[in-house]
Amino acid sequence: MKTHLKAIEAIALCKSYGSLQVLKNLNLEVKVGEIFGFLGHNGAGKTSFMKILIGLSYPSSGSVKLFGENIQVKSKKKIGFLPEKVSIPGFLKAIEFLVYCARLSGKSTREAYLQANELIEKVGLAEFKNEQTTNFSKGMLQKLALAQCMIGEPELLLLDEPGSGLDPLGTVELRNLILEQNQKRKVTIFLNSHRLLEVEKICTRIGILQKGELIALGAISDLTKGKNQIKLRLETWTESLMNLMFQISKEHKFINEQEVVLEPKEIIDTTQIPKLVVENGGNILLYEKSYESLEEIFIRLTGGTK
Amino acid sequence: MNLKGTFVVAEMTFQEAIRKRFIIFILLISSFFLLLNLSCEGAINVNGQERSLMRFSAFFFFYMVGIWNLGISTQITSSLVTEELENKTYIILLSKPISKLNYYLGKAFGIFFIIIANTFLVYFIYSISIYIKMGFFFFDFWKSFFPMLLGYALIISIVLLLSLATNKTVSVMIMSGLIVFSFIINGILYETNVEKFFEPAKKIHATLKIFYWVLPQFGSLTFFSSSLFESSISQVHYLGELSVYQISMWICVIWLILYFYLDRREFSE
What we know:
The complex is a heterodimer of chains A (306) and B (269). Chain A is α/β, with parallel strands linked by helices and 306 residues long. Chain A is built from ten helices and 14 strands. In chain A, helix 2 (94-104) crosses helix 3. The mean pLDDT of chain A is 88. Chain B has helices at 3-19, 22-38, 53-87, 90-94, 100-134, 140-165, 168-190, 192-197, 202-214, 218-229, 240-264, and strands at residues 43-46, 49-52. The longest helix of chain B has 35 residues, at 53-87. The relative contact order of chain B is 0.13.
C-alpha cells in the first residue's frame, strides 16, 4: 500500500468570494503525524481553507490534496472535523447523534452503537448520553463534536477553534485527548486557533495567515530564532566582565547597575555563558534565557493589525 | 453512489419529521377526513343512477387525502431543509463520507416515506373500518395511490431545489402556486363542466395548453388517479396517463439540475 508523507498539500491555492480574495496563492504542506497550528486574525482565511478540506467549498484556483489524493467523498473517510460553531440536530439525543455520524461513516448500526458508547465515555459525557442535545451547554456540545470527529479512527483531525467554550479543566482534557490521538495513533492534527498559549503547548509547527497570505511557516523555535535574549544579573561588573559581554553579545542594554539584557552572537553557545562569567570572576545572581512567546511572534509578524 | 449513506439520512429524516410537533397536526387533519367519511351512510342519485354514498364519500376522501398530501409534501420539505440550512446542522454531517447529492437524496426519501406512512395509515384505518361496517375489503384506494406517489416525489424534489436555492417562503409560494395553477389550468382545458362556464379565447386557450404541457401536471395526475379509483364519477381523462410520464420526466430533470447544482454549491459556515 502506498503511504503518503503529506497529510495536507495545498499548491498555489486561491479562493475568492466575488471580489473578495480570502486565500492568495497558499502553498502549504502538513506532514503525516504532525500537530500543525494555523493562526491568523478573524477573516484571515483559516476557516475558508478548512471548508475546502472537508469539501464544503471549492478552490477558485490551485489544488489541495489529502494524503496525496484530490478531495473527494472517499477521502473524507480519513478525516474528522470539529467545526468552530457546533450545531447538532436538536431532535437527537447525544448518543443518537454519534450513532448517526458513525453510520454515515459506513459503520453498521451495531458497530456504530459500540463506538458511540466508547467515544461518549472518552469525552466524559456518558451520563448525558440519553439527553437531548438542545439542553447541552457550549462546552458539552464541543465535547460531543470532538467525539464525533474521532469516529472511524480518522488519520487526520481538522479542528477549527477547538476549546472555545471549554472551562480550564476541559481545555486540559481536550489537549490531552489531542496529544493522545497524535502519540498513540500517529493522527495528524491540523488546528485553527486563536488560543496561542494552547497552540504553543501542543503544536510542532505553525503557519500564520494574514489576509489570505501565508506570512510565516515553521516550528515555533525556528520562528523565534535570533530573538533569544538573556537576562543577566551580577553582583558587580568588573572590566573583564564588561569585555566578556562585548565579546559574546550582538546587542546589550543595562536595565540597572547590576542587570543587563543581551542578545548573544550566533556563534556563541549560550549554555557556556554562565561558565565564562564565573571564569571571569563574576558572581551570578540571575541568569534567565527569554524567548519570544508565540503571542509576540504573532504580533511581530502580523504587525499587530488585521 | 453511497446508497447506504442515503438510506441512513432517509431514516434520520423520517425520525426527525415524526418527532416534530407538526406531525400531530398532520395526523389530526388526516383523522378529520377519515372521521368525516366514515360517518357517511345511505345512497345518492348521480345522473339518475342510485349510488352508494359510501363510494361517493370514499372518492371525496381520496381527493382530500391526495390534495392534503400535496400540501404537506411542500410544507415538510421546505421546513426540514431550510431549518437545517439556518441552524447549520449539515456541516458536521456533510464532513462525513457522503456526497451532497446522496445526502439530499436521503432527505427527499425520508420525507417521501412520511407521506407514504401518513397515507398508508389513513387508508389502512379506512379499509379496516369499511370491512367492519360492510364486510368487504375496499382496495380501490391503493391502485389510485401509486400514480399520486409520483406527484409527491416531484413536489419534494422541486421544493428541495427551491429551498436550497432560495428560502422557505419563496419555495412554498412557488410550489403552492404551481399546484393551484396546474389544477386550474387542467380544469379550464379538459373539464367539460368548467367549459360550460368559462370558455377562453382561442389564443389564450393555445397559450394555456402550452403552459399545461410544459409545467408539471399535478392537477391532471390527481384527476387521472381518481379516474382509476372511480371512473364513473370522474370523467375519464384520456390525457391522464401522459401526466404520469410527464411527471416522471420532470422528476428526472429536477434531479439532474440538483446534481449539477449540488456539485457546485458551496456551503458556508
